[in-house]
Amino acid sequence: MDAPKAPPRTIDQFCGKVCSCVRFSPDHAAISAELTGHMEEHRDALLEANPGMTLWDAESEAVRGMGDPEELGRWLNQIHNPRLGWFQIWFRRVVWTLAVLVLLFALPRAGELVTNLTAPASYDGIGMGHLLEHYDEYDVVADFTPGAVWQYEGYTFSIQRAVVTHSETSAYRDEALHLSYLLKVTHSDPWQRGPEFREWLWAEDDLGNRYPSRGEQALYQLPTSAGDSSGNPSAVYPFASYYDLWVGGIHPEATSVTLHFDRFGENAISLTLPLKGGD
Fold first, then answer.
1. Cα separation of 250 and 227, whole Å?
2. Distance (Å, rounded) from C-alpha 146 to C-alpha 151?
3. For residue 122, what pLDDT band results from cuts at 50, 70 and 90?
4. Helix residue ranges, H only, 175-271
5. Architecture of domain 109-274
6. Which uninterrupted H or E stretch holds 18?
7. Which one of 11, 95, 166, 200 has the minimum C-beta count within 10 Å?
8. CA distances (Å), 278 to each of 146, 184, 246, 271, in order?
């Protein structure tokens, strides 16, 4: 008759015995980590309560407190079903493969961004695309790449380029300034899309003048003579969305403009851009 096997005395021995009863091997590491955490907490509590106890005795006592490793392993084997486990693994692999394929499909369409940016503005403002196509025809005050970045609920907002021009023929006021800028919104999820905020992005200059969004103008029937903040449709890609936007009718003595989006009472976007300087 075989001699009975000695019970495990160390944490590693106990975890090994439990995992030997669990058929789904990819879960062994997670099971061992969880069991080790419990036993180490018990061991440390014993050492704190009994200063004279050795580390070996405290660990052995913590292991004994977990009960029969084979019985625990058989119970965990029922939870960590191999069929369900392998299904989850292969499902994640398929999802990531599809995400890579979507990205590879979208990369050749990157040229569409240039096409969208060079399209004429759909409103009466000067979009970045229209401005770049007719750059020499405008009196450029500033042309720069702002460093301001704003993060909100998984989105990262950044201004790729901003151009300030004089607008002597503006319907808003004589010698007004016009800010055109390209806003980039990035996110880590390829299935996520950029926030739908374009019609509610308003601006305010450092003199206290407010430039309402198109949504505010329509909702509150505001006159367009007060200036406005609007833009063109965006270009959308798996990890980023682009917005071709502007602020029109800016007071000529203003030196900066702050962009705001707070339709639902949250300061989701707050980016300040200078109106003077740059290359």
1. 7
2. 15
3. very low
4. 214-220
5. Sandwich (2.60)
6. helix 11-19
7. 95
8. 9, 20, 17, 17
